[in-house]
Automatic annotation (TrEMBL):
Domain S1 motif as annotated: residue spans: 690-761
UniProt-listed Enzyme Commission number(s): 2.7.7.8
Oligomer and partners: Homotrimer; in free form. Homooligomer. Component of the mitochondrial degradosome (mtEXO) complex which is a heteropentamer containing 2 copies of SUPV3L1 and 3 copies of PNPT1. As part of the mitochondrial degradosome complex, interacts with GRSF1 in an RNA-dependent manner; the interaction enhances the activity of the complex. Interacts with TCL1A; the interaction has no effect on PNPT1 exonuclease activity.
PANTHER family reported for this sequence: POLYRIBONUCLEOTIDE NUCLEOTIDYLTRANSFERASE, POLYRIBONUCLEOTIDE NUCLEOTIDYLTRANSFERASE 1, MITOCHONDRIAL
Protein name, UniProt field: Polyribonucleotide nucleotidyltransferase 1, mitochondrial
UniProt KW keywords: Acetylation, Cytoplasm, Exonuclease, Hydrolase, Membrane, Mitochondrion, mRNA processing, Nuclease, Nucleotidyltransferase, Phosphoprotein, RNA-binding, Transferase, Transit peptide, Transport
Family: Belongs to the polyribonucleotide nucleotidyltransferase family.
GO BP term (any one): mitochondrial RNA 3'-end processing
Subcellular location(s) per record: Cytoplasm; Mitochondrion intermembrane space; Mitochondrion matrix
Domain of life: Eukaryota
Lipid bilayer topology: Peripheral membrane protein
Pfam families: KH_1 (PF00013), PNPase (PF03726), RNase_PH (PF01138), RNase_PH_C (PF03725), S1 (PF00575)
Amino acid sequence: MAAHRLCGTMRAFHSQKMERVALGVRQFLGFGSEVVRGSMRRCHESAWSRHGKVRRVGVELGERKLEISTGKLARFADGSSVVQLGETSVMVTAVSKSKPTASQFMPLVVDYRQKSAAAGRIPTNYLRRELGTTDVEILTSRLIDRSIRPLFPAGYFYDTQVLCNLLAVDGVNNPDVLAINGASAALAVSDIPWNGPVGAVRMGIVDGEFVVNPTRREMASSTLNLVVASAPLSQIVMMEAAAENVLQQDFCHAVKVGVKHAQQVILAIQQLAREHGVEKRTPAKLFTAVPEMAETTRQLAAEKIYAVFTDYSHDKVSRDEAINKIRLDTEEQLKEKYPKAEPYDGIEAFNAVSKEIFRNLVLNEYKRCDGRDLTSLRDISCEVDLFEPLHGSALFQRGQTQVFCTVTFDSIESSIKTDLVTSALSGVKEKNFMLHYEFPPYATNEIGKLGGTNRRELGHGALAEKGLKPVIPKDFPFTVRVTSEVLESNGSSSMASVCGGSLALMDAGVPISAPVAGVAIGLVSKANPEKQSEIQDYRLLTDILGIEDYNGDMDFKMAGTSKGITALQADVKIPGIPLKIVMEAIQQATVAKKEILGIMNKTIAKPRAKRKENGPVVETVRVPISRRARFVGPGGYNLRKLQVETGVTISQVDEETFSVFAPTPGAMSEAQEFIREICKDDQEQQLEFGAVYTATITEIRDAGVMVKLYPNMSAVLLHNSQLDHKRIKHPSALGLEVGQQIQVKYFGRDPTDGRMRLSRKVLQSPAATVVRTLSDKHSIAMGTGSNQAADTP
């Protein structure tokens, strides 16, 4: 009995408190030290009994094998798994608290971290540590979160954390999909309540062939990057895609193939969970509406809520105010009738009834709260060229969603440089197109902090960027930044950013291959009473409002041209959606997308023929190797001076070509004058290879003497090794002084660094030579005339 009590204590406090607990139990029970140590050892073995055995399953995906294991690493976590594909391995842990949190949403935190050590690199920052969180890590964390969140039980408000730790990265296989499968496996083998598992794969299209989990090299030539997460019975819980104008039928086929392979991953994880044999815990409380209070709320407020939802004169703000007023009145009445009930119970009861009425309007009466039918778009208006100083601008209004977009050009050097691990995984070291999305608090009539970018803003901006990137020319000579500021928001601001960004790009004169539009499709469904995992009835909604997103079951965003799809994101709020509904959503989005493009084309249908006159300019300048040193200047002095005085930046393209970027045409004119002055024709063109000239010493240095062949020439170094056949440490050994004239032989410019090559040494031999001066082109014979046979220094 004493040993049993001790084992229970050890399980509760884990290893970090083992010694302290052992001491307390020893004093309380009066055990001898040997007895206690033996009991502790038996308890430790018992605690690991169900975790100590390593279990492993494999899945054949295409020509490669995905391996999932558990039981070896991180065994104090509620659940842990390691997923490996090729030489890339990811460990994922899941831990959930046993006490609930006062919240109105599932408090789930997913953190994905890229480790430089996993890729065989050391961080380049000052501390040589991983600092902060990169955009790629945040976007991957969101990808995992959206894949697993829908499968937690309704009302499970317990703090839960899923951590993804990269163990090894081979630079061939991307770890993000492995992390999704790892999170699924970690939750499946844990005792955390979760209605999984899910399986995830990446689909690519390479040379017309559909490829499962393509390698980095295959992805470089793939026209599709689709990540699909599926639940059992071929239900879809998450999709994220970037595509290069992929046709609808090809995209749909890729989704079906992805779901098929994801089912194999699910079967493997189910097998792993069965072998692990952990029973799911029973939550102390699920925060769902109390049936009795929900019925009372229905009697008190149902008619009032219905009246608000069917009053089409309401806009977002007035509708929210009207519902909130009914909510406050109802909650007061509930407090009087149920004085012992927790405040949350009243809130949840009202939310449940309000949601039920809203959904029944759509399902049974085919009504939407703004009066549209299920497939109609909101009113759309477009404007471009709003402000003259901007390189490109547009205002896109769809209902009460308003987005202001701008386009800014800068030099190629302004492109984003990716971090070490991202470069190793994707092969992309920099990108010269970016879209930044901002959602200020006033867009929803709220007060909040400005500055920084939260995960939602980063995710919405990344999706809009995916939608527009395929139509940007790959050889465009500028770095392009699109900003999207949401001025009003009532649903689908990310897709409005795609539309506004496309208009702004055309206004800026960017030669995009085709205009792009985006739309969001919603879903309201009814589960089968006998089998909750099946959908009995449903309605798809085109161009959803914010309230339809909140009360609905899916936010399905799709962007593309009139020809095909460029980006897609599906956020699902129920444990899975059948393929049939997903295919219908794609078709409905395609119809709406073409209608939106027709409206946008009335404002601007194609890119402007020319960029605005105040826009930046890029030109190439050819600088002969003989003048390159003078053009660049000592240590790049001339280039830095040019940038400070004119604002232009210069980058070298090849040995003789430089690219000049100027923010305005005026700055380019100043830069051209500066360059002409630096590189103007001078007397060096008259110098002849192999001829002897009289040089004037201007400075004595330890390494040699600085000499000029003509007055306006920049002095060049004549090294000690070229002064005399004798080895000397200092020019003074030869009696050389400043102002003295010496004879040197000219051997042109060094082809690698452009330096002038002169030698006095070759003239110290008895061989005859020819002396030339720039003022007198006639030869003066000084011997046999065999100077051409002299050695080059």
